[in-house]
User: What shape does this take?
Amino acid sequence: MAVLMFVGAFAFTGCEEAAQEGERDDIEIVYVNWIEGIAMAHVKNAILQDSLGMEVGMNEVTGGGIAFSSVAGGGGDVMIEAWLPTTHAGPWEDHEGELVKVGEWYNETTVGWITPTYTDIHSVEDLADHRDALGGEILGIEEGAAINDQTREILDNNNIEGFDVVASSGPAAWSSLERAINREEPIVTVAWRPHWKWGRYDIRYIEGAQTGQSPVFGEPEDIFSVARPDFEEEFPDPVVEFFDNVYVEDEHLDELMQPFRPESDVDDQMAAAREWIANNRDLVSTWMPDETEAVAAQQ
Assistant: This one.
C-alpha cells in the first residue's frame, strides 16, 4: 500500500487532457532480454501507468537489431536500451532518419576482465603468476562474441602465454564465477557494466584489461532510449519529459537489477519495480515532469 501511495502521489491529470487533444494515452515499450533493460522497462512501465496515466504494453525481444526494427517499423513506440555509439552502431545506421534518441539513462559503460576481490590478481601483469591456479583459462561468453576476441588480443598485446579463452554462455560464466567465489578460488572472466553481478558479488576489474585502459575495448558508451522522430508530437509533454529525465548510476541500478537477475525468487516483476521506486523516492522525483512534482508536493 505504501508503494502505491508513493507512486500515485505523482499523479498527473494533464496526460488525460493532452490525449483528448489528439495525443496518445497508450505506449508500447520494446526491450531486449538483458537484465538492466528488463529492469528499466518495468520501472518505466510502473511510472508511466501509475504517475502519468498511460496504458502500457510490453514487448520483450531477443536482440538489439530486432528491437530497432520493431520501433522503426511501428511495431513498438520506444526501445528502452540502445548502447551507442559502438554496440548498436549497425542497427542505428540501418535506421538512420527513422529513429531518434529520447533520453540518455546511463553514462559510460565499461567492459573488461574481472576477478573476485579476494584474489591477488590486480593487473594483467599478475596473470602469468596465477596460470596454474586459473587452469590456464579465462572465461568468455558465447562463441563468436567480440569480447572473446578482444580478450585474446589483450593476451597477445601483453605477451601472456599459456592461456585459452574459453567460450561459454553468459549464464554459465556467471555460474562459474559464483561457484569459484563460494569456494574462494581464483577466477578471471570477461564482464561489463551495467550488469546485475556487480550488485551481487564482490568483484573488480583487472588493471590494464578494461575500458579506458586498453584501446582493445574502445571508448565508453552511453545507453539511450530511442523512438521514431514524431515521438514528441505523438505523446503528451509529461511523457516526453519523463523519458528525457530518467538517469541512473551504478549504485541504484545495481540494486534495481537484483530481483530481475537469473534464479531470482521474485515472481512479480512489476511489484519489484514499484518497490524499488518507493525505496528510491529522491532519485525518482528528479525524473518526474514539473507538473507531477507540484502535484506530489500537495499530497
